[in-house]
Amino acid sequence: MDDFKFSPKYPLIDEEKTVDLLNEAYEGVTIYGTPFLELYFESLRKTNCGTNPFQAVNKLRRCYNLVRMFQKVKDVQGDFAEAGVFRGNTSRMLADVAALGGFDMSAREMHLFDSFEGLPDPVSEDLQPHELPEGETSDPYYRETPRRFSNTSLAAVQEALSDVEWMHFHKGWIPDVLNGHEERRFSFVHVDVDLYQSTMDCLNFFTPRMNPGGIMICDDYLSLRFPGARMAWDIYCRERNVKFVTLDNYQSVIFF
């Protein structure tokens, strides 16, 4: 726990007590014999990632859910993919889980798709409906410079995952970066692209390419920060009668 980082700092958050709660909640929880907290904090360290203290408990739970879903596809044929990588924290964690679990990677790979330049511009479906304070003329939440999640780079993520031979990196904006991968089949896809159009583009691309037994998980389905992700997911699944489940911390999952 010494490597745990809150970034940025918030004076009203009791960070020491938050860490105590994390230890208490995950005491004895292991992944292939390795303490989950050890796995999680090691991935943060390797990728130079911190976590917002408002999101600390939530983020940890989402990572735990992600790992548990990933374990389910150990023996399912098909490549792995992450759309939305940021600094590679979850990519690093999944690579370590695959190593701990003895996943057979001789005939499959993991593909990471990201602009490595932050999020694209939001569209109307991504805006949070609320009353603005008197005198405000636009939503202050989106008044951010530079692009949100732009404090990363392809080189940094490649360095953090340089020991994983089966990891492949694809820099570009979704959906363009997905071009050239139409013939691939997938067993596990982690969609963490936050916004409406990017989520819809991922669903359109990956869903018909999922193998039986595969899993697709959306990181942002119930996120209040990114309502567009849920809208895209709901529209896609409703129009195609695709069933899914929701997990306890934002996420939704399609089992194929």
Question: How far from one another are the termini?
Answer: 37 Å
> Strand portion, in percent?
15-25%
> What is the quaternary state of this protein?
single chain
The fold-level CATH name is: Rossmann fold
Q: What is the count of helical runs? A: 7
Main beta-sheet strand count, sense and barrel state: 7 strands, mixed
User: What's the overall average pLDDT, rounded?
Assistant: 88
Please give the radius of gyration in angstroms: 18 Å
CATH class: Alpha Beta
- Which spans have pLDDT < 50 for at least 5 consecutive residues? 130-145
How many strand segments? 9
What is the string of helix and strand elements?
HEEHHEHEHEEHEHEE
- The CATH architecture can be given as 3-Layer(aba) Sandwich
State the CATH superfamily name. Answer: Vaccinia Virus protein VP39
Number of self-contained structural domains: 1
- By secondary-structure content and strand pairing, the structural class works out as alpha/beta
* Sheet with the most strands: spatial strand order: 5-4-3-6-7-9-8
Which overall shape is indicated by the principal axes computed on the Cα atoms?
Answer: globular
Tags for this model:
alpha/beta, globular, Rossmann fold, 256 residues
Give your account of this protein's structure.
A seven-stranded mixed sheet has the order 5-4-3-6-7-9-8, sandwiched between helices. It is α/β, with parallel strands linked by helices. Mean pLDDT is 88; it is low at 130-145. The chain has a single domain, classed as Vaccinia Virus protein VP39 (Rossmann fold, 3-Layer(aba) Sandwich), CATH 3.40.50. The protein contains seven helices and nine strands, in the order αββααβαβαββαβαββ. The longest helix is centred in the N-terminal third of the chain and has 16 residues, at 56-71. A hairpin with a 5-residue loop joins β8 and β9 (252-255). The N and C termini lie far apart (37 Å).
